[in-house]
Amino acid sequence: MVEWFSWVQIAVALVVGLIAIGMAVAKRGPNDVTVLGLALVELLLVVQLVLAIVAPLTGNPMLGNALEFWMYLVAALIIPPAAIVWGLIEKTRWSNLILATAALGIAVMVFRMHTIWFLHAPGYA
After folding, report:
1. pLDDT value of position 122
2. Which residues contact 109 (CB under 8 A, 6 or more apart)?
3. What is the tally of structural domains in the chain?
4. pLDDT attached to residue 49
5. Residue 30, Cβ neighbours under 10 Å: how many?
6. Is 54 within the bounds of a domain?
7. SS3 59
8. Average pLDDT, the chain
9. Could you give the count of Cα atoms lying within 13 Å of 97 in the half-sphere of its Cβ?
């Protein structure tokens, strides 16, 4: 995991989530901005997957629990496509709240993955 990239992921997910909340408050249904924004969050997660595979091979080992990290990453990869499908099926303003929840949840999950990768020392509870 590359530290600066995880912060970029968190920032992008937060911006997408806030935009989706704004669209819901404005009583607008899902549109290209919210759907493609969440697709960008998914693309960044796929890049994170590649980085998480390559990083230990280049001298950037994970300090925390590997199983916990990988479970967060796998779950995070599933959430955006599911939210996008839901948003495209139900085209009401409430779908934007689903997209926002997915984006904000991904921001929290990436922060947790960052914590697992960098801040946990072996034996840390």
Report:
1. 55
2. 72, 75, 76, 79
3. 1
4. 96
5. 26
6. yes
7. coil
8. 92
9. 7
Q: What is the DSSP letter of 90?
A: S
Which alpha helices (DSSP H) does 1-125 contain, by range?
3-25, 32-54, 66-89, 93-118
pLDDT in tens, 80-114: 999 999 998 988 889 999 999 999 999 999 999 99
Instruction: Indicate if the alpha-carbon torsion angle 4, 7, 11, 16 is positive or negative.
Output: positive
Residue 125 falls within a domain, yes or no? no
Residue 36, domain extent: 3-118
CB-based contacts of 77, cutoff 8 Å, min separation 6: 42, 45, 46, 49
Number of residues that this document lists for the chain: 125
Does some domain include residue 123?
no
Over 90: is that where the pLDDT of 33 sits?
A: yes
Residues 6+ apart with CB under 8 A from 40: 12, 16
For residues 56 and 85, give the distance between their C-alpha atoms in angstroms, rounded to a whole number: 34
The pLDDT score that the predictor gives to residue 58 is 92
Q: Is 124 contained in some domain?
A: no
